[in-house]
Amino acid sequence: MSTLLRSSFLLTVLFTPFFATLIHNTNAAPAPPSLAEALGNSFKKRLMLPNVPLASDINGAHILLKNDLDSMAPKYSFLLLSHPRDYYAGMAACTSMGDGGYIYIAGTPAANEMVSLLKNNPVAQVEVSAYSQFWVFNGIPGIFSNCLAVNKNTGLTDWIPCSTTLPTVCYNSAPRRTLVIQDSARQVKINIPGVGQLQGWRDQNSFRFLGIPFAEAPVGKLRFAAPVPKAPFTTTLDATYYKDVCPQTAPSDGLGASLLSGLLNGAVESEDCLNLNVYTPSLKGTGEALLPVMFYIHGGGFTSFSGSVVLFDGGNLGSRGGVVTVTTNYRLGMLGFTENESAFPRSDVSGIQGIRDQILALEWTKKNIAAFGGDPDRITIFGESAGAASLRALLSVPFAFGLYNNVIGQSDPIDLPFKSPRDSANIQALFFLSMGCASNDLACARSKSIGDLMDAQVKANAMMVTQQNWTTTFLVDRPTVDHDLIPGDFFELVKTGKHNTKANVMWGSTKDEAGRFVSTYYPNKETINATNYESVFFKTIGSQRVDLILNNASSLFKPNMASDDPASDLFNDFYTKYYLYCPLKYFSREITKSGGKVYQFRFNRGRGIPLADALGYCGANTGRVCHAQDLSPVFGTEAMLPLTFQTGDDARFARQIVDRWTTFAKTGNPNPTTDMLGVENSNLDVAGVNWSAYDSSTNPMLELNIESKMSTNADQAACSFMDSILQYDFMFRNTTFAP
């Protein structure tokens, strides 16, 4: 999957002169170090400006924007400085923030929108509700010591004494950040006790502080060890650009893979990669109400991607939903999941390093997010694919339970259990041997270059898939049930009520998850018929269980011979249900037995990966919604790439998804209440459809579409067969029965 996404991204950016030039220069470089230098110079092109204001001096800065997520519609963005000042101090504060006071012309679309936002907005409603008048820019000097203020109740301006202390409305002329438009000229600093000073910038949607290290570089003796919290900064941290991402390409992948990784992640790869990004629409002043926090964990099979992928930009979630968004990196592959307690003490090789990184990033967030306007007591963790599997781990780690309140999981292949200690020790030995080290020689493994390590990972993973094809080629590297950090398999913990029973859960899948992997298992169309279609099941399931399907569920899983590709269609249908859809329903039922609240969804609409999904099995013209096609609607970021747009029904659908996700982050319930601030309760696609919590009698699920609706007992026959007869991998893998 990651190779496909990287390839599509490269094709997209090739249409822009900036990246065409970058690629030309990179291809001219004589060696890989020049590639890194070329990419690094590109990504670090922003400059830290001098004389930048300190957020605590501004004491309340909020971006107000009616963000309809339509990339073709005009946008009017305003900067509200909520601390009351006299007129001239207010105008000076606007100037210090890189813009001037807003020139108010009554009756214009921008003026009308500003007045509307001063009455109701998701970002600073408490702050604006205390005032009816706000300073705007005088078109002429003050008249008889009077200055111009706008009245939000009448929409008219009044001349009042300039010494009156009021909040101030400034322009926010910054453009929306996209892949190739990144105007970082409007910068601001914040001080965080115990961390240091950071300097970031704002665009149309949010203030953004990028590449904040939360751990020391995991190199040398820290390679394979637990993460160590970052020491406080001694100078101002440049948080205007994304920092390095975790290693994810091998020299054997070729030079093009490194280029693709850099373009996709917006940064170069290195082991010094444990950093996070914060997007906030509001830098709160003293005593001002804090906003809910959404902490995103990226997917990519635990081997690819980062928190800086352009589709994960948190600006739209913040400006429309009134939340603070955090995205994080964590160690990937064998750097993040090397485990063998029988060979190494945990003080040297902690195991599950990637999950430990996520927990440290969450701890950093809970401790420091108030400095960015976020509420440390209202944190929702959300993720897709391997990111959703990470949430499963976090629901299992007792000391992490207090770090979050709500969980949103998208497309967790939850059928696949985490690794056993035996399997982890096995792949660790293969990994070390592939580096030319003895299986217990940690010093040797730590001495190897990152290139040697990544090539060894490719070899070890391939050998592991040969031994255990049921793990699939996409999730070999994953957490281990080590009975230390993770005390038991999720299946066992949920059965006994030892998972985080206090967390509200919202999870689901797309309707054609497995379609994403058709090209891997069926690079060419395969001919099957009514008598040999069992070959589809043998892709990852053993013969005993294939017999269970043929003998007990042949009517449920048969090829559609009227299709032009019956093998791929059967593969898609069966494995979507087996790996994701049905086991999610199973776990929903078990969690509710412990009194937990669960909301289930299924994406029946999505947006394809640009260009990659223009054609092929997951193409836009097929009506399928495959794995990862829920990403851009969740972040509202389809128009972040060149030559892409988000308008019409696509924008409408993105509004619905963003509003549901942020509503859940605010209350733990995806149904907006009538007193909720912002836009959720005025969006009829959301407020007009009640999303029922899961109950085992009707198996309710929200079928997400342009006009979403609830379903009950969908695909019940197939799921009942899998629950009780076929059973899931988490029910018997790592135990005595492994057919």
TrEMBL record:
Top-level lineage group: Eukaryota
Cross-referenced SUPFAM superfamilies: alpha/beta-Hydrolases
Example of a GO MF term: hydrolase activity
UniProtKB keywords: Hydrolase, Signal
A UniProt-annotated Pfam family: COesterase
Residues in the signal sequence: 1-28
Positions of the Carboxylesterase type B domain: 189-721
InterPro entries: AB_hydrolase_fold, CarbesteraseB, Carboxylesterase_B_AS, Type-B_Carboxylest/Lipase
Gene3D superfamilies membership: alpha/beta hydrolase
Segments passing through the bilayer: none
Similarity field: Belongs to the type-B carboxylesterase/lipase family.
Record-given protein name: Alpha/beta-hydrolase
UniProt organism field: Linnemannia elongata AG-77
